[in-house]
């Protein structure tokens, strides 16, 4: 009993320190605008971090079904596209208020998730992966064929969304603050979902779906509900991305984008909502700064080789991500946990 007590008391500070990680993440995001204004590069910093937070929202949405429900969706970028096109199409018809655009995007995302999820969840394993990919590709080709809304070339927004008639989102700081509020709201909501009875059943279906059926639960309804919630939150991220980029394109919903979201979740750590945010930040920041790092690191090469190394930075980026996933079991959050235990 004494040893057990000591083990528990030793584990409590570690758990407490790990609980501070989400607090630290949101504190950094909250402080970033002030640091950006002091640096003189606020436009660039705000744009980059706004994008990081948007993808953090989408990664958390995917983590709900992937990390907690073991549902590998290879078409989650479709909800990104639904949210973005809801903003773009409504704006092109003169409906520019986010108080209309966002509910429409959420409703469309929920409808698409309910219909496709009800079909996809009848399958398992690689079949589920392929059917979610097929539905996303179907939506991608549909968006590409919408000549009235730009087709393959995409659609440029006339302006960012209004909020109750106000154009305050035109200010980069305001958009940043709104995105941060959405990130925090999505995190709190998903954390409540995961900690609830619903979340415990969802995690149970991940561990042993047959056992959950044996004790009287119907995993299908829980998985479908989680899929709909996940799709709606990813749709919200799409609305924000359309406003951040002021542009909507079928490229938002390609299978490559879905793959990137999966990589972000795995990189940060499966089954960890703040890990999904960390994974999104690590992925996008590496993607942003790796070419410059390689250029600086190749000072000993001749100009031609240095240029080739910088131009083909993806050939270095890919192996780095693979090595992190292979040797950092549990992703970045797993590394943090092992560091605390050590």
From TrEMBL:
As for membrane topology, the entry says: Multi-pass membrane protein
Q: What is its main location?
A: membrane
Know the name of this protein?
Branched-chain amino acid ABC transporter permease
What do the Gene Ontology cellular component annotations say?
A: plasma membrane
| Localization in the cell | Cell membrane
**Where is the chain membrane-spanning?**
20-38, 44-66, 73-92, 98-119, 126-149, 173-194, 261-285, 316-336
Q: Which GO terms describe its molecular function?
A: branched-chain amino acid transmembrane transporter activity
What species is this protein from? Microvirga makkahensis
Keyword set, alphabetical order: Cell membrane, Membrane, Transmembrane, Transmembrane helix
GTP-binding: present as a keyword of the record?
no
């Amino acid at each position: 009993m004494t040893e057990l007590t000591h083990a528990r008391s030793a584990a409590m500070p570690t758990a407490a320190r790990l609980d501070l990680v989400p607090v630290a993440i949101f504190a950094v995001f909250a402080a970033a605008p002030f640091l950006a204004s002091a640096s003189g590069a606020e436009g660039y910093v705000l744009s980059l971090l706004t994008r990081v937070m948007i993808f953090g929202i989408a990664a958390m949405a995917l983590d709900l079904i992937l990390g907690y429900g073991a549902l590998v969706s290879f078409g989650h970028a479709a909800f990104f596209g639904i949210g973005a096109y809801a903003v773009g199409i409504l704006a092109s018809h003169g409906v520019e208020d986010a108080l209309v655009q966002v509910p429409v995007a959420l409703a469309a995302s929920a409808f698409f998730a309910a219909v496709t999820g009800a079909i996809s969840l009848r399958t398992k394993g690689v079949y589920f992966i392929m059917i979610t990919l097929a539905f996303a590709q179907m939506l991608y080709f549909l968006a590409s064929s919408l000549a009235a809304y730009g087709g393959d070339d995409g659609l440029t927004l006339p302006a960012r969304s209004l909020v109750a008639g106000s154009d305050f989102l035109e200010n980069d700081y305001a958009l940043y603050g709104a995105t941060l509020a959405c990130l925090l709201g999505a995190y709190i909501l998903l954390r409540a979902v995961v900690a609830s009875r619903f979340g415990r059943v969802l995690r149970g279906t991940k561990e042993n779906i047959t056992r959950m059926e044996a004790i009287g639960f119907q995993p299908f309804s829980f998985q479908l509900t989680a899929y709909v919630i996940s799709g709606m939150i990813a749709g919200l991220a799409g609305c924000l991305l359309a406003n951040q980029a002021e542009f909507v394109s079928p490229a938002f919903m390609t299978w490559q984008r879905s793959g990137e979201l999966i990589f972000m979740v795995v990189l940060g750590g499966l089954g960890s909502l703040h890990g999904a945010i960390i994974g999104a930040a690590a992925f996008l920041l590496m993607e942003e700064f790796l070419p410059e790092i390689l250029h600086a690191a190749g000072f000993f090469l001749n100009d031609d080789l240095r240029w080739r190394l910088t131009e083909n930075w993806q050939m270095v980026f890919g192996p780095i991500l693979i090595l992190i996933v292979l040797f950092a079991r549990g992703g970045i959050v797993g590394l943090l946990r092992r560091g605390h235990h050590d």
